[in-house]
Structures
1.
Amino acid sequence: MSEFMTVMENWDGYRPVSEGGPNEAALARTLDLITNAARMPAHRHAYLLQEAITTSDFPVLLGGVLDRQMLALYRGAPSPWRSFVPTGTLRDFRVATAHKFQGNQQLLGLVREKEEYPSTPMTEGSYNRQLFKRGRMFDVSWEAIINDSMGAFDDNARRFSNAALFTEAWVATSIYAAAAGPNPLLFGTPIADAADGQNVTNLGVLPLTIGNLQTTMQLMALQTDVQGRPLGIRAAHLVVPPQLEFAARAILTSAFVQQVDTTGGANAAAPTYVPLPTTNVLPQMGLQLHVDPMLPVVDASATADTTWYLFADASEGRWGQVDYLRGHEAPEICMKASNKVTLGGQLMDPFGGDFDTDNILMRVRLCIGGSPLDPRYAYAHQAP
């Protein structure tokens, strides 16, 4: 037993599990070697790089560096849609049901002495949400890994990030816009709510002006539920294409509204027009402006430059939602193992590339979906 305990207590040749994976220092050294931060001569840099590629740890470290670079670019880049489009997660790729319960919110009835309390049945509806897998394969040549400049390495990290950001923005915009204008799954004159079947009118043709914006905010506030109860929805987000940005900013920041009053009566030969400035109350309403650069990409209609949208905040109700696969909320990168073997039958290192072209194949994957929900919390105008 004493010999056994001696063996158990002797840790020579072992290292802690926490040291098994790549740490920050190793990642930093790998990045310095790849980018030749020490400015070594080309022949020495190529020799050290080739020597590192033959080790088992280098592919893991390089993958960690690429993943860190891609996520840093991904998380650091602006995503305007995130400030007004609700987000969530789903656990798999099957169609998920978002339940909506209705009832028992109207005026409470009068209950007289010793009378039984009346009951109102609840109704249930649902919206469908679903995820889809999106991705693309990228390749880096074996020569690019060996070459001194390593420009292809940095470029691929940026390409991974840009592809993921573009895809997310396209999915989010496609919830409320389509090739012909506002998405017919969310907007109509009227459109039937998928959960309760009530007809909802939330589409117009008014151009973006102070007066039309005020009118549309009032129309949203007058929306009712299936039992006729006014919802009092407060518009919180104004979304416009880049062509309407200056007009929208002028509307939301102007202190006064210039109106015109006609004096002199109907019998006057030459009426006098007197400008009457009044206070613009829109800056006091807390309406946030969002310029969506993806709208001209998704909307290919003749009215794409003049179409604008109003949305309620997610705390009031969800007009749509972007979902990610639970546990996979960020884009993921993986690399294909080399399919080459030596004459002795041993597998080559992953950075040896594939058998046909010596290319090193990497892939980015994003699991995302966008779904229209309750149309009462959105309004659009497709102005001619």
Note: The first strand starts at residue 87 and ends at 90.
2.
Amino acid sequence: MRVESTVGLCFAGFGNVGQGLARILVRKERELAERWGLNCRTVAVVTRTRGAAVSRDGLSLAELLARAERGEQLGTDRITPVEAALLPQTDVVLDVTPTNLKTGEPGLSVTRAALGSGRSVVTSNKGPVSLALEELRELARERGACFRFEGSVMSGTPSLNLAMESLAGCDISHVQGIVNGTTNYILTRMEEGCEYGEALAEAQEKGYAEADPSGDVDGWDAAVKAQILASVVLGSPISLDAVDRTGISSITRSDVEAAASRGRRIKLIARAARTAGGVSASVSPTEIPLAHPLAGVGGATNALTFTTDNLRDVTIIGPGAGREETGQALLSDLIAVA
């Protein structure tokens, strides 16, 4: 039996990902209510540079999106993200603040405060998951809250929820895949004849890579995702420092052509695996046979292969970035919480 629920939402951050979720909530408001019994009331939106807006009766997401499009302030309320998370009307905090892998802030403080007060948290922010996963999970258990973070690995393409829910009952021994769209785009373009620098410039022009691309090309983004996969899917928490990391900046077009001559393709592969000594995780450019499911994944697309006992290999392919794509991950977690 479907249970109707009205969920009070607090957006901590309202950049690309927050706006992506907001667009879906506006566009599919009726369907979410009729099909999933989910009614949302946005009680607070707090940003670092565009102000904050609070309303116990509910803010108009359509109006907030219009203000964001026009580059206007979202509101003039004086409130911190932590204070907004603790409002009596807040049921679920959406942490869509930028990722900081050194401190986890500001998302970590917001998440701690929300879970500690019994509010659930849905996030796409890798920082708190990387730095304090076990602490936050325990806090959620103690307070009867939920902490979900599907969007931290493959945007809206289900990876964590696939492993933990759809593959429940399987023993997963190995996970490997392409979890960074920027590097996959660069390697794809190099195979098509571009030099590394030219392919990187294209990725930056298309918005796949930042002005400082080191987080992608040096393997940091893929490494934290490998860490999360090891900790969540294989159940063995490890630190980011324990991930053996090599990026793609030293790969040349001749390397790519040489691999092709051997019937292979270079991909930046993130891995987490059970070993005799426990669980290991790594990220490195790897030659894989053209017949492998991951070899055909081109452009900015992501993919993961789960090696299981009951189903052998299960591969999922889909978008690894994007406003509404990541918004979909938040939405699926929000529906699960509600």
Note: The chain has a mean pLDDT of 95.
